[in-house]
Specification:
alpha+beta, OB fold (Dihydrolipoamide Acetyltransferase, E2P), Chloramphenicol Acetyltransferase, 4-stranded antiparallel beta sheet, 7-stranded mixed beta sheet, elongated
Length: 471
Protein backbone atom coordinates (compact mmCIF):
# COMPACT_ATOMS: atom_id res chain seq x y z
CA UNK A 1 0.00 0.00 0.00
CA UNK A 2 1.34 3.44 -0.98
CA UNK A 3 0.88 6.26 1.53
CA UNK A 4 1.55 9.90 0.65
CA UNK A 5 2.88 12.40 3.14
CA UNK A 6 1.82 15.97 2.40
CA UNK A 7 3.66 19.01 3.71
CA UNK A 8 1.87 20.02 6.93
CA UNK A 9 1.14 23.50 8.21
CA UNK A 10 4.01 23.92 10.65
CA UNK A 11 2.30 26.65 12.61
CA UNK A 12 1.18 30.29 12.50
CA UNK A 13 -0.72 29.74 9.26
CA UNK A 14 2.42 29.51 7.13
CA UNK A 15 1.60 28.69 3.54
CA UNK A 16 4.90 27.24 2.33
CA UNK A 17 8.26 25.85 3.41
CA UNK A 18 11.57 25.13 1.73
CA UNK A 19 13.01 21.61 1.65
CA UNK A 20 16.54 22.02 3.03
CA UNK A 21 17.65 18.39 3.00
CA UNK A 22 16.41 14.81 2.97
CA UNK A 23 17.57 12.47 5.71
CA UNK A 24 16.38 9.42 3.76
CA UNK A 25 16.61 8.12 0.20
CA UNK A 26 14.35 6.06 -2.01
CA UNK A 27 14.47 2.44 -0.82
CA UNK A 28 15.32 3.27 2.78
CA UNK A 29 13.31 1.64 5.52
CA UNK A 30 12.00 4.12 8.05
CA UNK A 31 10.30 3.78 11.39
CA UNK A 32 7.48 5.81 12.86
CA UNK A 33 8.69 9.26 14.05
CA UNK A 34 12.06 8.89 12.34
CA UNK A 35 13.32 12.27 11.07
CA UNK A 36 13.10 12.20 7.29
CA UNK A 37 13.74 15.83 6.27
CA UNK A 38 14.68 19.33 7.34
CA UNK A 39 12.48 22.17 6.13
CA UNK A 40 12.74 25.90 6.63
CA UNK A 41 9.72 28.06 7.32
CA UNK A 42 9.63 31.81 7.58
CA UNK A 43 10.54 31.46 11.24
CA UNK A 44 12.72 28.43 11.85
CA UNK A 45 14.30 25.21 10.60
CA UNK A 46 12.10 22.23 11.48
CA UNK A 47 12.76 18.49 11.44
CA UNK A 48 9.94 16.48 9.90
CA UNK A 49 9.26 13.07 11.49
CA UNK A 50 7.78 10.25 9.44
CA UNK A 51 4.07 9.61 10.05
CA UNK A 52 4.45 6.06 8.69
CA UNK A 53 6.65 3.02 9.13
CA UNK A 54 7.68 1.50 5.83
CA UNK A 55 9.91 1.92 2.80
CA UNK A 56 10.49 5.24 1.02
CA UNK A 57 8.92 4.81 -2.41
CA UNK A 58 9.47 8.30 -3.85
CA UNK A 59 10.74 11.77 -2.95
CA UNK A 60 8.56 14.26 -4.79
CA UNK A 61 10.59 17.42 -4.12
CA UNK A 62 14.29 18.23 -4.32
CA UNK A 63 16.30 20.17 -1.69
CA UNK A 64 16.03 23.89 -2.29
CA UNK A 65 12.45 23.65 -3.53
CA UNK A 66 9.77 25.82 -1.94
CA UNK A 67 6.66 23.69 -1.44
CA UNK A 68 3.13 24.83 -0.63
CA UNK A 69 1.39 23.35 2.40
CA UNK A 70 -0.71 20.33 1.44
CA UNK A 71 1.38 19.17 -1.49
CA UNK A 72 2.85 15.63 -1.44
CA UNK A 73 6.56 15.54 -0.65
CA UNK A 74 7.23 11.82 -0.08
CA UNK A 75 5.49 8.48 -0.60
CA UNK A 76 5.90 5.35 1.52
CA UNK A 77 5.22 1.71 0.83
CA UNK A 78 3.66 0.38 4.00
CA UNK A 79 2.25 -2.93 5.19
CA UNK A 80 -1.36 -2.92 4.01
CA UNK A 81 -2.41 -4.95 7.03
CA UNK A 82 -1.16 -2.34 9.50
CA UNK A 83 -1.54 0.83 7.48
CA UNK A 84 2.03 1.80 8.24
CA UNK A 85 1.75 1.55 12.02
CA UNK A 86 -0.26 4.74 12.11
CA UNK A 87 -3.24 2.79 13.36
CA UNK A 88 -3.42 2.13 17.09
CA UNK A 89 -3.92 -1.48 18.15
CA UNK A 90 -6.54 -1.97 20.85
CA UNK A 91 -7.46 -4.53 23.48
CA UNK A 92 -10.87 -5.04 25.03
CA UNK A 93 -11.34 -4.20 28.70
CA UNK A 94 -13.86 -5.69 31.04
CA UNK A 95 -15.96 -2.54 31.08
CA UNK A 96 -16.29 -2.52 27.33
CA UNK A 97 -13.72 0.25 26.90
CA UNK A 98 -10.66 0.07 24.71
CA UNK A 99 -7.15 1.31 25.26
CA UNK A 100 -4.07 1.26 23.05
CA UNK A 101 -1.73 -1.63 23.72
CA UNK A 102 1.78 -1.03 24.98
CA UNK A 103 3.06 -1.79 21.50
CA UNK A 104 0.86 0.78 19.85
CA UNK A 105 2.48 4.01 18.67
CA UNK A 106 1.16 7.42 17.90
CA UNK A 107 2.72 9.70 15.38
CA UNK A 108 3.81 13.25 16.29
CA UNK A 109 1.14 15.88 16.04
CA UNK A 110 2.54 18.67 13.92
CA UNK A 111 -0.03 21.30 13.13
CA UNK A 112 -2.01 20.23 10.08
CA UNK A 113 -1.50 16.52 10.47
CA UNK A 114 -1.91 14.25 13.40
CA UNK A 115 -2.27 10.62 14.32
CA UNK A 116 -4.59 9.12 11.74
CA UNK A 117 -6.75 6.54 13.45
CA UNK A 118 -8.61 4.11 11.23
CA UNK A 119 -12.35 4.02 11.99
CA UNK A 120 -13.11 0.65 13.51
CA UNK A 121 -16.78 1.44 13.87
CA UNK A 122 -16.51 1.69 17.66
CA UNK A 123 -15.18 4.57 19.76
CA UNK A 124 -11.73 4.25 21.26
CA UNK A 125 -11.96 4.67 25.02
CA UNK A 126 -9.80 4.30 28.04
CA UNK A 127 -11.01 2.45 31.11
CA UNK A 128 -11.78 4.59 34.11
CA UNK A 129 -8.89 4.63 36.52
CA UNK A 130 -6.61 3.01 33.97
CA UNK A 131 -3.26 4.75 33.52
CA UNK A 132 -2.44 5.30 29.87
CA UNK A 133 0.61 3.34 28.69
CA UNK A 134 3.79 5.09 27.73
CA UNK A 135 3.77 6.51 24.23
CA UNK A 136 6.53 6.89 21.75
CA UNK A 137 8.62 9.97 22.46
CA UNK A 138 7.68 13.19 20.69
CA UNK A 139 10.30 15.85 19.99
CA UNK A 140 10.16 18.67 22.50
CA UNK A 141 9.63 21.21 19.72
CA UNK A 142 6.41 19.56 18.58
CA UNK A 143 3.02 20.52 20.01
CA UNK A 144 1.68 17.99 22.47
CA UNK A 145 -1.24 15.79 21.52
CA UNK A 146 -4.73 16.55 22.66
CA UNK A 147 -5.78 14.14 25.45
CA UNK A 148 -8.86 12.10 24.55
CA UNK A 149 -11.56 12.26 27.23
CA UNK A 150 -13.03 8.98 28.46
CA UNK A 151 -16.00 7.72 26.43
CA UNK A 152 -15.62 10.53 23.88
CA UNK A 153 -15.46 9.63 20.23
CA UNK A 154 -12.11 10.13 18.55
CA UNK A 155 -12.31 11.86 15.16
CA UNK A 156 -10.66 10.15 12.24
CA UNK A 157 -8.15 13.01 12.04
CA UNK A 158 -6.97 15.21 14.90
CA UNK A 159 -5.66 18.66 14.05
CA UNK A 160 -4.31 21.22 16.46
CA UNK A 161 -4.26 24.75 15.05
CA UNK A 162 -1.21 26.77 16.05
CA UNK A 163 -3.37 29.74 16.90
CA UNK A 164 -7.01 30.57 16.40
CA UNK A 165 -7.35 33.92 14.66
CA UNK A 166 -10.61 35.80 14.27
CA UNK A 167 -11.63 36.29 10.67
CA UNK A 168 -10.80 39.62 9.08
CA UNK A 169 -14.43 40.02 8.05
CA UNK A 170 -17.59 37.98 8.01
CA UNK A 171 -17.38 35.29 5.35
CA UNK A 172 -19.73 32.62 4.23
CA UNK A 173 -19.50 29.35 6.14
CA UNK A 174 -16.98 26.99 4.65
CA UNK A 175 -15.35 29.69 2.48
CA UNK A 176 -11.63 29.23 1.95
CA UNK A 177 -9.53 31.86 3.71
CA UNK A 178 -7.43 33.97 1.30
CA UNK A 179 -3.76 32.98 1.35
CA UNK A 180 -1.55 35.39 3.28
CA UNK A 181 0.99 35.46 6.09
CA UNK A 182 0.12 36.25 9.75
CA UNK A 183 1.65 39.78 9.66
CA UNK A 184 -0.34 40.62 6.52
CA UNK A 185 -3.55 39.30 8.08
CA UNK A 186 -2.91 41.44 11.16
CA UNK A 187 -2.29 44.50 8.97
CA UNK A 188 -5.57 43.84 7.16
CA UNK A 189 -7.41 43.52 10.47
CA UNK A 190 -5.90 46.77 11.75
CA UNK A 191 -6.98 48.58 8.59
CA UNK A 192 -10.42 46.95 8.54
CA UNK A 193 -9.82 45.28 5.16
CA UNK A 194 -11.57 42.12 4.00
CA UNK A 195 -8.82 39.98 2.47
CA UNK A 196 -11.33 38.30 0.18
CA UNK A 197 -11.59 41.62 -1.67
CA UNK A 198 -7.82 41.86 -2.24
CA UNK A 199 -6.14 40.34 -5.28
CA UNK A 200 -2.91 38.58 -4.32
CA UNK A 201 0.19 39.13 -6.47
CA UNK A 202 2.50 36.70 -4.66
CA UNK A 203 3.28 33.07 -5.55
CA UNK A 204 0.08 31.11 -5.95
CA UNK A 205 -2.05 34.21 -5.29
CA UNK A 206 -0.43 34.97 -1.91
CA UNK A 207 -1.55 38.37 -0.60
CA UNK A 208 1.42 40.58 0.31
CA UNK A 209 1.83 43.89 2.13
CA UNK A 210 2.18 45.60 -1.25
CA UNK A 211 -1.23 44.25 -2.27
CA UNK A 212 -2.74 45.71 0.93
CA UNK A 213 -1.03 49.04 0.24
CA UNK A 214 -2.30 49.15 -3.34
CA UNK A 215 -5.81 48.28 -2.17
CA UNK A 216 -5.82 51.08 0.41
CA UNK A 217 -4.34 53.53 -2.13
CA UNK A 218 -7.09 52.64 -4.60
CA UNK A 219 -9.79 53.15 -1.97
CA UNK A 220 -8.22 56.44 -0.91
CA UNK A 221 -8.05 57.63 -4.52
CA UNK A 222 -11.71 56.78 -5.04
CA UNK A 223 -12.73 58.67 -1.91
CA UNK A 224 -10.48 61.60 -2.86
CA UNK A 225 -12.10 61.74 -6.28
CA UNK A 226 -15.55 61.84 -4.73
CA UNK A 227 -14.63 64.64 -2.34
CA UNK A 228 -12.13 66.62 -4.40
CA UNK A 229 -14.16 69.83 -4.28
CA UNK A 230 -14.09 69.85 -0.50
CA UNK A 231 -10.53 68.63 0.12
CA UNK A 232 -8.82 70.75 -2.52
CA UNK A 233 -10.61 73.98 -1.69
CA UNK A 234 -8.32 76.80 -0.46
CA UNK A 235 -8.40 77.71 3.20
CA UNK A 236 -10.79 80.53 4.06
CA UNK A 237 -9.75 83.22 6.47
CA UNK A 238 -10.24 82.00 9.99
CA UNK A 239 -10.24 78.27 9.11
CA UNK A 240 -8.69 76.05 11.74
CA UNK A 241 -7.52 73.35 9.29
CA UNK A 242 -6.04 73.18 5.82
CA UNK A 243 -6.46 69.96 3.83
CA UNK A 244 -4.12 69.12 0.97
CA UNK A 245 -4.61 66.06 -1.25
CA UNK A 246 -1.79 63.54 -1.01
CA UNK A 247 -0.41 63.28 -4.50
CA UNK A 248 2.64 63.72 -6.67
CA UNK A 249 6.09 63.53 -5.08
CA UNK A 250 4.71 63.44 -1.54
CA UNK A 251 2.52 60.43 -2.30
CA UNK A 252 5.32 58.61 -4.11
CA UNK A 253 7.78 59.31 -1.30
CA UNK A 254 5.32 58.17 1.36
CA UNK A 255 4.59 54.92 -0.47
CA UNK A 256 8.29 54.27 -1.02
CA UNK A 257 9.16 54.89 2.63
CA UNK A 258 6.33 52.66 3.88
CA UNK A 259 7.41 49.91 1.51
CA UNK A 260 11.03 50.20 2.62
CA UNK A 261 10.21 50.33 6.33
CA UNK A 262 8.00 47.22 6.20
CA UNK A 263 10.03 45.07 3.79
CA UNK A 264 13.69 45.72 4.66
CA UNK A 265 14.86 45.02 8.23
CA UNK A 266 16.68 48.24 9.09
CA UNK A 267 19.76 48.45 11.29
CA UNK A 268 21.39 51.81 12.07
CA UNK A 269 24.91 52.31 13.42
CA UNK A 270 26.55 55.55 14.51
CA UNK A 271 30.13 56.81 14.51
CA UNK A 272 31.44 60.20 15.62
CA UNK A 273 34.64 61.19 13.82
CA UNK A 274 37.27 63.87 14.24
CA UNK A 275 37.17 65.42 10.75
CA UNK A 276 39.62 68.24 11.42
CA UNK A 277 42.06 66.86 8.82
CA UNK A 278 39.28 66.61 6.23
CA UNK A 279 38.16 70.20 6.85
CA UNK A 280 41.76 71.38 6.52
CA UNK A 281 42.03 69.48 3.22
CA UNK A 282 38.78 71.07 2.07
CA UNK A 283 40.17 74.54 2.79
CA UNK A 284 43.36 73.79 0.82
CA UNK A 285 41.41 72.43 -2.17
CA UNK A 286 39.17 75.52 -2.27
CA UNK A 287 42.30 77.66 -2.59
CA UNK A 288 43.83 75.43 -5.26
CA UNK A 289 43.84 76.48 -8.92
CA UNK A 290 42.93 72.91 -9.87
CA UNK A 291 39.52 73.40 -8.19
CA UNK A 292 38.94 77.00 -9.19
CA UNK A 293 35.26 77.39 -10.13
CA UNK A 294 34.24 74.14 -8.42
CA UNK A 295 31.91 74.09 -5.44
CA UNK A 296 33.46 72.00 -2.68
CA UNK A 297 31.62 71.06 0.54
CA UNK A 298 32.00 68.43 3.27
CA UNK A 299 29.44 66.40 1.26
CA UNK A 300 31.85 66.30 -1.69
CA UNK A 301 34.66 64.73 0.31
CA UNK A 302 32.31 62.45 2.26
CA UNK A 303 30.84 61.17 -1.02
CA UNK A 304 34.31 60.42 -2.37
CA UNK A 305 35.24 58.67 0.87
CA UNK A 306 32.08 56.54 0.62
CA UNK A 307 32.95 55.49 -2.93
CA UNK A 308 36.43 54.41 -1.80
CA UNK A 309 35.11 52.52 1.24
CA UNK A 310 32.66 50.61 -0.99
CA UNK A 311 35.55 49.01 -2.87
CA UNK A 312 36.40 46.93 0.20
CA UNK A 313 32.79 46.49 1.32
CA UNK A 314 30.76 45.67 -1.82
CA UNK A 315 27.83 44.09 0.05
CA UNK A 316 26.53 47.59 0.81
CA UNK A 317 26.18 48.20 -2.91
CA UNK A 318 23.62 45.47 -3.61
CA UNK A 319 19.92 44.78 -3.89
CA UNK A 320 17.44 42.16 -2.64
CA UNK A 321 15.39 40.87 -5.59
CA UNK A 322 12.29 39.41 -3.96
CA UNK A 323 10.57 38.44 -7.21
CA UNK A 324 13.46 36.29 -8.44
CA UNK A 325 14.79 35.36 -4.98
CA UNK A 326 18.26 36.67 -5.83
CA UNK A 327 20.82 39.06 -4.39
CA UNK A 328 22.08 41.48 -7.06
CA UNK A 329 25.64 42.71 -6.53
CA UNK A 330 26.26 45.97 -8.42
CA UNK A 331 29.67 46.40 -10.01
CA UNK A 332 29.01 50.11 -10.47
CA UNK A 333 27.80 52.84 -8.13
CA UNK A 334 24.85 55.11 -8.90
CA UNK A 335 25.11 57.47 -5.94
CA UNK A 336 21.78 58.84 -4.72
CA UNK A 337 21.69 62.22 -2.98
CA UNK A 338 18.60 63.08 -0.94
CA UNK A 339 17.44 66.55 -1.93
CA UNK A 340 14.77 68.68 -0.26
CA UNK A 341 12.77 70.48 -2.94
CA UNK A 342 9.61 72.61 -2.93
CA UNK A 343 7.77 69.53 -4.22
CA UNK A 344 9.07 67.28 -1.47
CA UNK A 345 11.98 64.92 -0.91
CA UNK A 346 13.60 63.45 -4.01
CA UNK A 347 16.66 61.23 -4.40
CA UNK A 348 18.28 61.84 -7.79
CA UNK A 349 21.47 59.93 -8.43
CA UNK A 350 24.82 60.34 -10.14
CA UNK A 351 25.35 57.54 -12.63
CA UNK A 352 28.66 55.63 -12.39
CA UNK A 353 29.86 57.92 -9.62
CA UNK A 354 32.67 55.50 -8.81
CA UNK A 355 34.36 56.36 -12.14
CA UNK A 356 34.47 60.11 -11.50
CA UNK A 357 37.44 62.13 -10.31
CA UNK A 358 36.97 64.46 -7.35
CA UNK A 359 36.48 67.43 -9.69
CA UNK A 360 33.97 65.54 -11.81
CA UNK A 361 32.13 64.40 -8.70
CA UNK A 362 32.02 67.98 -7.40
CA UNK A 363 30.55 69.23 -10.69
CA UNK A 364 28.00 66.40 -10.77
CA UNK A 365 26.86 67.14 -7.20
CA UNK A 366 26.44 70.84 -7.97
CA UNK A 367 24.44 70.11 -11.12
CA UNK A 368 22.30 67.51 -9.30
CA UNK A 369 21.32 69.81 -6.42
CA UNK A 370 20.65 72.84 -8.66
CA UNK A 371 18.46 70.77 -10.99
CA UNK A 372 16.55 69.20 -8.09
CA UNK A 373 15.82 72.54 -6.43
CA UNK A 374 14.53 73.95 -9.70
CA UNK A 375 12.18 70.97 -10.05
CA UNK A 376 13.68 69.89 -13.38
CA UNK A 377 15.10 66.49 -12.39
CA UNK A 378 14.33 63.93 -15.10
CA UNK A 379 12.66 60.59 -14.20
CA UNK A 380 15.73 58.68 -15.38
CA UNK A 381 17.81 60.48 -12.76
CA UNK A 382 15.40 59.44 -10.00
CA UNK A 383 15.72 55.71 -10.62
CA UNK A 384 18.51 53.18 -10.58
CA UNK A 385 20.43 54.39 -7.52
CA UNK A 386 22.44 51.72 -5.69
CA UNK A 387 23.36 53.56 -2.44
CA UNK A 388 22.44 56.98 -1.06
CA UNK A 389 23.59 59.87 1.13
CA UNK A 390 21.36 62.28 3.04
CA UNK A 391 23.07 65.42 4.35
CA UNK A 392 21.10 66.31 7.48
CA UNK A 393 24.01 68.39 8.74
CA UNK A 394 22.91 71.36 6.61
CA UNK A 395 19.92 71.66 8.98
CA UNK A 396 22.14 71.63 12.09
CA UNK A 397 21.25 67.98 12.91
CA UNK A 398 23.92 65.71 14.33
CA UNK A 399 22.52 62.22 13.72
CA UNK A 400 19.43 60.31 12.67
CA UNK A 401 18.07 56.95 11.57
CA UNK A 402 17.53 57.32 7.81
CA UNK A 403 15.12 54.99 6.00
CA UNK A 404 16.53 53.09 3.06
CA UNK A 405 15.70 54.20 -0.44
CA UNK A 406 13.70 51.21 -1.82
CA UNK A 407 15.93 48.75 -3.65
CA UNK A 408 19.12 49.80 -1.88
CA UNK A 409 21.15 48.07 0.81
CA UNK A 410 22.43 51.16 2.64
CA UNK A 411 22.03 54.90 3.20
CA UNK A 412 24.46 57.26 4.97
CA UNK A 413 23.36 60.32 6.94
CA UNK A 414 25.97 63.07 7.40
CA UNK A 415 25.64 65.14 10.56
CA UNK A 416 26.74 68.72 11.04
CA UNK A 417 30.41 69.59 11.54
CA UNK A 418 30.81 71.08 15.01
CA UNK A 419 33.66 72.19 17.22
CA UNK A 420 33.83 69.96 20.28
CA UNK A 421 36.33 68.87 22.96
CA UNK A 422 38.30 65.84 21.80
CA UNK A 423 41.04 63.74 23.31
CA UNK A 424 44.27 63.89 21.29
CA UNK A 425 47.36 62.20 22.76
CA UNK A 426 45.79 62.28 26.21
CA UNK A 427 45.09 66.00 25.94
CA UNK A 428 41.65 67.59 25.61
CA UNK A 429 41.65 69.91 22.61
CA UNK A 430 39.03 71.57 20.44
CA UNK A 431 38.47 69.64 17.21
CA UNK A 432 35.93 69.59 14.40
CA UNK A 433 33.76 66.48 14.66
CA UNK A 434 30.98 64.91 12.64
CA UNK A 435 28.53 62.08 13.37
CA UNK A 436 27.90 59.43 10.70
CA UNK A 437 24.65 57.41 10.75
CA UNK A 438 24.53 54.32 8.57
CA UNK A 439 21.29 52.39 8.00
CA UNK A 440 21.46 49.09 6.13
CA UNK A 441 19.29 46.18 5.11
CA UNK A 442 20.15 43.31 7.45
CA UNK A 443 19.05 40.77 4.82
CA UNK A 444 21.97 41.89 2.66
CA UNK A 445 24.49 43.33 5.10
CA UNK A 446 25.67 41.59 8.26
CA UNK A 447 26.58 43.62 11.31
CA UNK A 448 30.27 42.97 10.72
CA UNK A 449 30.11 44.17 7.11
CA UNK A 450 28.20 47.32 8.02
CA UNK A 451 30.58 48.07 10.88
CA UNK A 452 33.69 47.59 8.73
CA UNK A 453 32.30 49.90 6.06
CA UNK A 454 31.49 52.59 8.62
CA UNK A 455 34.91 52.19 10.24
CA UNK A 456 36.67 52.52 6.85
CA UNK A 457 34.64 55.64 6.08
CA UNK A 458 35.53 57.13 9.45
CA UNK A 459 39.21 56.34 8.93
CA UNK A 460 39.28 58.22 5.63
CA UNK A 461 37.50 61.28 7.02
CA UNK A 462 39.75 61.34 10.10
CA UNK A 463 42.90 61.05 7.98
CA UNK A 464 42.35 61.46 4.21
CA UNK A 465 45.88 60.19 3.54
CA UNK A 466 44.64 56.71 4.57
CA UNK A 467 42.96 56.48 1.17
CA UNK A 468 46.33 55.35 -0.16
CA UNK A 469 46.05 52.16 1.92
CA UNK A 470 42.60 51.31 0.53
CA UNK A 471 42.97 51.72 -3.24
Amino acid sequence: MIKEFRLPDLGEGLTESEILSWKVAVGDTVTLNQVIAEVETAKAVVELPSPFAGVVAALHEQPGTVVEVGKPIVSFEVDSAEGGSAQADTNEHDDGGEVPTAAAKREPNLVGYGAVLENTGRPTRRARGQVAPAQSPVPASMPTQVPVPARAEVPARVEIPARVEPPVALESAGAERPRSTPPVRKLARDLGIDLSAVQGSGPGGLITREDIQQYTDAEASQKTGQGTATQASPARQGERETRTPIKGVRKFTAAAMVQSAFTAPHVTEFLTVDVTATMELLARLKGSKAFEGYKLTPLTLAAKALLVALQNNPSLNSRWDEANQEIIQFNYVNLGIAAATPRGLTVPNIKDADRLTLRELSAALTDLTDTARSGKTQPADLSGSTISITNIGVFGIDAGTPILNPGEAAILALGSVRKAPWVVEDQIVVRQVMSLSLSFDHRLVDGEQGSRFLADLGTILADPAMVLTMI
